[in-house]
C-alpha cells in the first residue's frame, strides 16, 4: 500500500511540475515580454514611399546590389503627418510629433502652444531607465530633426539656444555632420565650439582616427563625433559626390560605432536616433540620382543596426520612418508612359549641389555655352545628338531650355528676373543645374510635383522586440505613444 | 488508507485534466487555425498610397465624414508591381500576378510565355474547396481586372473569348457595370447577351428590383447583376456625377447583396472580388475631385464587407490592394508650397468625363467663350475675378491657358494639331476640360506626373483570419501565394 502512496505522490508531483511548466509557458507567451533594451530609430528626412521605392528599383535594376535592408522589415505601418496649420507638415513640427508626441507650432521643437516643454522619448529613456543616448545625422547636429530629440524651443532657428541644449542634454554620442552657427557668448569670449562643449563635459572629435579609437561611453564619457571632410554646409558630402572627396565617416560607420560605444559592457540599454538628413535636401532640389544614392547610404546605416540586432535579436527594436515626404516624387512621367529608364540616372555622377558650384565657376570665368556642354555630358551623360549617345540626347526643345537656363545662370543672381514662372522652372536653385536635373529625371521617367513637402504619409518599418505594435495607419504622434507604452514610461 | 488513495486518485485526475486543458489551449494557440471561409479581395484599380491619402484627407477635412474603413486595417503590407517588360506595370499583367501568381506578358491574362494557362485563386477555391465566387466591378465585367479572376487569354482585348470564359466560369455572382463588346456568333444568330448568358445557366438582370429580390445562390443559381442607369461606357456613373443620374446600384450595395447571396445557408465558403475600377480612369485623367469621390465610394463597399466581418470575425478575411498606382499623384504642388486647399476640390461637382460631353455640345452649338465661363464656374467653382470669389480666381496667365484650350476644343478633333506638347498639356482628353482640371487641381495643391501608371508599390491592407500574413514588402505575386498557402490549395 505504501508503494502505491509513493507512486501516487510521485505522479502528483510530476503532474504538478507539468502544470506549472505549462502555466509558465502560457503566461510567458501571454505577457508582452520584456521591453526592448536597444532601440534604433531611423528617420529619413523627406523619406516617403516614393523615395523608398525609387531607391529599391534603382538598386535592383541598375546597381544589381543586395536587397535593401528597408525591404526586409516584417511590420509596416503608415503615419499621417498632418500638422496644426497645414495638411503638409514642416520638419520641426513633424519631429516634435515623433519625439515628444505633440502637435505644435510649425517651427517649434517640443514646446506646445501654451509654452509648455515636453520631454522627448530620448530624455525619458535616459531619465527613467538610464538608457544611453546617441543622436546621429547627416544633417547638421543642431538642425531640426536631430535637435528634435534634445531641444525645446519656440523656433528651430534659435541656434545658440539649441546648441546650449545639446551641450546640456547629457546624451552620450552625437555624431555625423558638424554643429553650425555657434557664436561665442560674452562669457565665452575667445573660446570656440570645442571649448564650449568641453566645459559641458563633451569631447569634440573630428578625425577618423579619433572616432575609430572610441571605446565605450562608460569608460570614455560623452562625445561629439564629427565626420571629417565636410562640404561647405558643414555636412557629410552627398553619397553621389563621395568619390570626389577623401573618405568621410559615413552614417553606417557612425551607427556601428555608436552602438558599440553605448553598449559598452552591456549593463545599460540604449536609444540611437539616426537621421538620413540630406534625403530631404536632394528631394527639395528634385534630384533623383542624388536621392537614390542618399537612400542607399541611409540603408547602409540600417544594415549596421541589423547586424547589432542579429547579435541581440530579443532585446533590440529597430524602427525606420520619415518625418514627411519631400518633392511629391512620382515614379512615372507623361512623356515616358509606362517605361522607366533608371540607367539614365546612373549617368549622373554629381549632386545638384556640387554642380551648382561648378556653374558659379563658369559664370566667374565666362565659360561659353559650347564649353559647358562637354561638362554636362561628363557629369550627367546627356547632350546634343553626337552620333554616339542615341538613347538620351537632347532634342531641339530641350537644347533651347538648356540655353535659356545657361543665359540665366551666367547673369548675376541679383540681376535675374524672379517671378513665379522662374520659381516653377528653377525653384531657388541654379537655373542651369535645375534644367539639367529636370531633363535627366524626366528622361528616366521620373517627375516631381513640388520643391516643398507633400502630405503623403510616411512608412513606419519595424523589426524586433515590440515591432508588431507599429502596424496599421496612425498619426505620427503615435510613434512616440507606442514607444512610451512599450517601454512603460511616464 | 483507502481514503488517501482516493484523494490521490482524485488529485491526479484533476491534474491530468488541467494538463490536458492547458496542452489543448497551447496547441490551439500554436496551430495556424482554421482557414478563412469568407474572403473579400478588394482591388482598387490605380489605387496606391497617394489615392488612399488624398481621399482620407479630403474626407476628414472637407466632408468631415466618418473615418474611412481603409484606415482601420490593422495589418499593412506593400506590394511591388514591377512587370516582365517594365518597372511600371499594365493592368492585365498586374491582375494576373495577383490572381494566379504569375508574371506574364503585359496584356495577357493568366497565361504565361509558354502559353500555359494558370488557374486563378478564385477557380482554385471553387474547384478545391467548393467556395462560391463573386466578381464585382465598377468597370465593365469583361475588362482586365475582373476578367483576371476567370479568363486565360493572350490578349485582354480578345473580348468574345473573355465573355465566353465568363459564361463558362460557373462563378455564382457577377455584379456591377455591364459586359460590353458582345457580338453574336453565327450559331447565336439573332440572340443577344441575355440569351447567350442564359444558355450558360446565367440570369442576366439589370434592374434594382431584380437585384434586390435575389435570395441565395443555392436557391437561385448564377446571376449577372448589372447596375441600372449606366453611363455611355456601360459603367456605373462616377460617384461625383451620381446626383445628376437616377439611383444606380452602387459597389457597396453589390458587395452587401453578393455576400448575402453567396453565404446563403452558411454551408459553403465564398470568395468575393470587388474592383474599384474607375479610380484608375479618374487618375488617368488626373482628376483629383472625381478620384476622391471614387475612393470614398470604394470605401463604402469595404464598409459593407466589414459589416459581414463583424458578424463572422473568426471566419472572415478582408484584403484591400491595388493593381498599380495611376497618375503619379503628388499631394503637394510647387506653387502652393506647404499648403493644401482641398476645399477647392469640393467646388467641382462633375467628372472630367461628363464635362467633356458638355464641351462637345458647346462645339456643336458654337457656344462662345463668354457663355462657357459661367458653366465652368457652376461646375468647378473657378473663373475670372468677379469680386466674389477672391480665393480661387483665375489670373491672367490662367485665363490665357483657358482661352487657348477653349479654342482647341472648339476645333474639330480631326483638325487639331497633336504633338508631344499638346499631349503633355491635355493627354488624350478634351483640351478645355483638362485645362480646367489641371487649374483646379493645382489650386488645391495637387499635381500629377503622368497620364499613365507609376511604379509606386500598392498598399495591401488586411483584416481578420490570416491577416497577419500580409505584412512586409513583397512582390504582388505573393498576394496569390499567401492566399494559396493560407487556404492550403494545390
Structural overview:
The structure is a homodimer of 490-residue chains. Chain A is of the alpha/beta class and 490 residues long. Chain A has two domains: 38-329 and 452-486, 3-Layer(aba) Sandwich (Alkaline Phosphatase, subunit A); 349-445, no CATH class. In chain A, 44% of the residues lie in helices and 14% in strands. Chain A is built from 19 helices and 16 strands. Chain A has helices at 2-30, 49-63, 91-100, 121-129, 144-147, 159-168, 193-199, 208-213, 217-220, 251-263, 278-284, 288-311, 343-346, 352-365, 369-380, 396-410, 420-426, 431-444, 477-486, and strands spanning 38-44, 75-80, 132-137, 173-176, 202-205, 222-226, 270-276, 316-322, 325-326, 329-330, 383-384, 393-394, 447-448, 453-454, 458-464, 472-475. In chain A, the strands form four sheets. In chain A, strands 5-6-4-3-7-1-8-15-2-16 form a ten-stranded mixed beta sheet, sandwiched between helices. In chain A, strands 9-14 form a two-stranded antiparallel ribbon. Chain A has a two-stranded antiparallel ribbon with strand order 10-13. In chain A, helix 2 (49-63) crosses helix 12 (288-311), helix 3 (91-100) packs parallel to helix 19 (477-486) and helix 14 (352-365) crosses helix 18 (431-444). The N and C termini of chain A lie far apart (61 Å).
Amino acid at each position: 500500500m505504501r508503494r502505491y502512496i509513493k507512486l501516487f505522490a510521485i505522479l502528483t508531483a510530476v503532474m504538478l511540475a507539468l502544470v506549472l511548466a505549462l502555466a509558465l509557458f502560457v503566461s510567458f507567451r501571454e505577457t508582452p515580454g520584456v521591453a526592448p533594451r536597444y532601440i534604433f530609430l531611423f528617420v529619413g528626412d523627406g523619406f516617403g514611399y516614393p523615395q523608398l521605392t525609387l531607391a529599391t528599383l534603382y538598386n535592383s535594376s541598375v546597381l544589381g546590389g543586395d536587397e535593401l535592408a528597408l525591404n526586409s522589415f516584417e511590420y509596416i505601418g503608415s503615419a499621417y503627418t498632418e500638422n496644426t496649420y497645414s495638411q503638409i507638415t514642416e520638419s520641426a513640427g513633424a519631429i516634435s510629433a515623433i519625439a515628444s508626441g505633440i502637435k505644435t507650432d510649425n517651427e517649434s521643437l517640443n514646446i506646445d502652444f501654451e509654452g509648455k516643454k515636453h520631454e522627448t522619448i530620448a530624455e525619458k529613456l535616459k531619465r527613467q531607465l538610464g538608457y544611453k543616448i546617441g543622436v546621429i545625422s547627416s544633417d547638421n547636429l543642431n538642425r531640426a530633426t536631430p535637435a528634435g530629440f534634445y531641444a525645446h524651443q519656440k523656433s528651430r532657428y534659435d541656434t545658440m539656444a539649441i546648441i546650449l541644449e545639446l551641450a546640456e542634454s547629457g546624451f552620450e554620442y552625437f555624431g555625423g555632420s558638424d554643429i553650425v552657427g555657434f557664436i561665442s557668448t560674452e562669457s565665452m569670449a575667445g573660446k570656440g565650439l570645442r571649448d564650449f562643449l568641453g566645459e559641458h563635459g563633451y569631447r569634440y572629435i573630428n578625425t577618423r582616427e579619433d572616432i575609430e579609437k572610441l571605446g565605450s561611453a562608460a569608460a570614455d564619457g560623452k562625445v561629439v563625433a564629427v565626420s571629417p571632410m565636410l562640404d561647405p554646409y558643414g555636412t557629410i558630402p552627398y553619397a553621389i559626390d563621395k568619390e570626389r572627396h577623401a573618405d568621410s565617416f559615413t552614417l553606417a560607420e557612425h551607427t556601428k560605432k555608436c552602438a558599440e560605444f553605448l553598449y559598452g559592457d552591456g549593463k545599460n540599454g540604449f536609444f540611437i536616433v539616426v537621421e538620413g538628413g540630406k534625403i530631404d535636401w536632394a528631394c527639395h532640389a528634385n534630384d533623383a540620382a542624388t536621392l537614390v544614392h542618399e537612400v542607399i547610404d541611409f540603408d547602409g546605416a540600417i544594415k549596421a543596426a541589423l547586424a547589432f540586432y542579429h547579435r541581440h535579436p530579443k532585446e533590440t527594436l529597430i524602427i525606420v520612418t520619415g518625418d514627411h515626404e519631400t518633392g511629391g516624387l512620382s515614379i512615372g512621367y507623361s512623356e515616358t508612359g509606362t517605361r522607366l529608364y533608371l540607367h539614365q540616372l546612373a549617368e549622373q555622377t554629381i549632386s545638384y549641389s556640387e554642380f551648382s558650384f561648378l556653374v558659379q565657376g563658369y559664370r566667374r570665368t565666362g565659360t561659353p555655352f559650347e564649353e559647358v556642354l562637354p561638362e554636362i555630358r561628363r557629369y550627367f551623360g546627356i547632350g546634343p545628338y553626337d552620333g554616339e549617345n542615341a538613347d538620351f540626347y537632347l532634342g531641339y526643345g530641350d537644347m533651347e531650355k538648356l540655353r535659356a537656363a545657361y543665359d540665366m545662370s551666367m547673369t548675376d543672381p541679383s540681376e535675374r528676373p524672379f517671378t513665379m514662372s522662374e520659381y516653377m522652372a528653377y525653384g531657388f536653385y541654379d537655373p542651369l543645374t535645375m534644367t539639367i536635373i529636370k531633363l535627366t529625371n524626366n528622361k528616366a521617367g521620373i517627375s516631381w510635383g513640388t520643391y516643398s513637402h507633400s502630405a503623403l504619409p510616411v512608412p513606419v518599418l519595424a523589426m524586433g522586440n515590440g515591432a508588431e505594435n507599429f502596424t496599421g495607419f496612425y498619426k505620427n504622434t503615435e510613434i512616440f505613444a507606442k514607444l512610451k507604452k512599450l517601454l512603460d514610461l511616464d
